[in-house]
UniProtKB/TrEMBL annotation:
<feature type="domain" description="Endoribonuclease L-PSP/chorismate mutase-like">
    <location>
        <begin position="22"/>
        <end position="166"/>
    </location>
</feature>
<dbReference type="InterPro" id="IPR035959">
    <property type="entry name" value="RutC-like_sf"/>
</dbReference>
<dbReference type="InterPro" id="IPR013813">
    <property type="entry name" value="Endoribo_LPSP/chorism_mut-like"/>
</dbReference>
<protein>
    <submittedName>
        <fullName>Enamine deaminase RidA, house cleaning of reactive enamine intermediates, YjgF/YER057c/UK114 family</fullName>
    </submittedName>
</protein>
<dbReference type="Pfam" id="PF14588">
    <property type="entry name" value="YjgF_endoribonc"/>
</dbReference>
Amino acid sequence: MHSEDAVVETPVNPKTKSPLERLRELGIDLPGFNPAAANYVPVTRRGELLYTAGQTPKKEGALVYKGKLGDNISDQEGYDAVMLCTLNTLTLLDHFADGLNNIDQILKVTVFLNCTPEYVHHSKVADGATDLLVSVFGDAGRPARSSVGVNALPGGAACEVEMIAALKSK
């Protein structure tokens, strides 16, 4: 699952297509908005920066990937789960930026992986986020990134993704 083997490819010139057009060409629709699950806001804006809350691999409000990498979740399932978390994060950015066209750059992505203590493929699985972001935003979607193994995540989620994005100057 290295970037050269990525499931998501960049078939279009990011400068000539909008992010939503690129998603459509990849056969991907943004999922529905998942409301905050506790006492927090989904996005905080400071100046031209958007900070997202962590997004788990939910679809239509239901957790799709539950469990631990290195146990009952394979690397490919983890990659797919991270991609779903990233799509949920893009849904937030689309809403709070008034469209993905208003995103200038993805600055930072943090991927939390619910995994066993012995698990070591964090970066390969976290490529599910970066591969998608580069397909949607081109080089502006290649962020600084951290991938962190944790003992547990909300609801038993296999992963969680949070992001910092810069808005285009107006």
